[in-house]
Amino acid sequence: MERAAMQEYFSEVRAYFAPVDRTTETGTVFDPSQSFDLESPPSPWISLGAVRNFKRAAQSALGTVRSGPVGVAQNQYRRRTDARVSFDFCEWGKLQMALAAGSQHMNVLESSGAEARASGGPAVAGQPILAGSTSMLILLDSSVLGNHAAGELVVVDVDYVAGITELGTGITGGVAVNPAVLDADAVRRVSFNVASIAAVTAAGLQLQAPLPGGAPVAGAKVQKVVAFADHEGAEFLQEWSAVFAQEEVSGGRVYFHYPRLQAATPAGEVFVPLADGLHAALLHAEFAALGSVDANDGEDVVCYRSFVPAPGAPAY
Fold first, then answer.
1. Three-state secondary structure along 234-299?
2. In this model, does residue 169 exceed pLDDT 70?
3. Number of C-alpha atoms within 13 angstroms, CB side, residue 150?
4. In 66-75, which positions are buried (b, 16+ CB within 10 angstroms) versus exposed (e)?
5. Alpha-carbon distance 36 to 30, whole Å?
6. Other CB atoms closer than 10 Å to residue 210's CB: what's the count?
7. SS3 state at 36
8. I need a labelling partner for 266 at 20 to 30 A (CA). Which of 8, 129, 146, 259 fits?
9. pLDDT (tens digit per residue) in 280-290
10. CA 48, CA 192: separation in Å to the nearest integer?
């Protein structure tokens, strides 16, 4: 019997993240019975590229039932279920930085220059979008289209108004801890509805990728994003679903699925020497796995490991 197909070789580990519903604490489901294209993952999964130094740590604990005068072990039971995962992002981007920082992550909006602030000064006023806008096409009045150009980053979300507690349409990007200091741009400063402009058309802004939070809602505005910033000390903790795929070489594929991951360490970087004084800067991230209920057996689960065998491979 040919057993070579049972040996797993892989080239790299690739990371994919999707939102958690913060109201119901429900993660995005990953179903290993369905096709998962590593180059174009199904919505709402977002590819965050290759990661290095991927390490899983199961920290579950077992208890033992003993009996008799010398305490002979008779059975075991699981008394705690816990897991962690850590890795280094090879690429820098908004979501990579937010996950690696763990805390509230901010869009630095184009500033009016009125006042200097560490996370970006007062912003140039947002431009209202028009009805009919989609997650890929932001319709704007023709009079403001000249303010934008291909390659720019933009954020599309609503104004902050008193009473909003969770900031961000579709995906929660932060919480209103001190509403008294928040201005109308507060939601857009933490929103994940950020994308790069692929082209400026006669009708609006064609985006390179869909807005992660979906089509803009009524009242949304668009503003330019010139940088990203995070800071240590905010109360908000990032929480996302994750899939890590070992890109197959031998034919089989391994997935590690975490329905709910919450940031467990502060921001940190890893510098890898390359050559002649050149270094690669990696974003270090570590997460605690939170509980989810499996729909098929009702058990509490923190992570899944699944293996899709190569065609023709023996079962065991």
1. CCCCCEEEEEEEEEECCCCEEEEEEEEEEECCCCEEEEEEEECCEEEEEEEEEEEECCEECCCCCC
2. yes
3. 6
4. eeeeeeeeee
5. 9
6. 17
7. coil
8. 259
9. 899 999 999 99
10. 14
pTM: predicted TM-score of the whole model, two decimal places = 0.89
- Hey, where are the domains in the chain? 4-102+237-308, 105-230
> Which tokens go with 134?
């989609």
Residues 241 and 260: beta-carbon distance below 8 Å: yes
Helices (H) and strands (E) in the chain, counts: 2, 21
Rg from Cα positions in the chain: 23
Is 4-102+237-308 CATH 2.60.40?
no
Question: Which one-letter DSSP state was computed for residue 26?
Answer: B
d(CA 109, CA 153): 10
**Is the CB of residue 155 less than 8 Å from the CB of residue 223?**
yes
Q: Which two tokens stand for residue 40?
A: 């174009």
Q: What is the pLDDT of residues 62-83, one digit of tens each?
A: 778 888 888 888 887 776 778 8
Tens digit of each residue's pLDDT (9 = 90 or more) over 9-38: 778 999 999 999 988 989 999 999 999 999
CA distances from 47 to 65, 137, 154, 242, 289 (A): 45, 21, 19, 10, 20
Average pLDDT of the segment spanning 162-168? 91
Of 91, 103, 107, nearest to 15 (Cα)?
91
The region, left, alpha or beta by phi > 0 then psi within -120 to 50, assigned to residue 71 is left
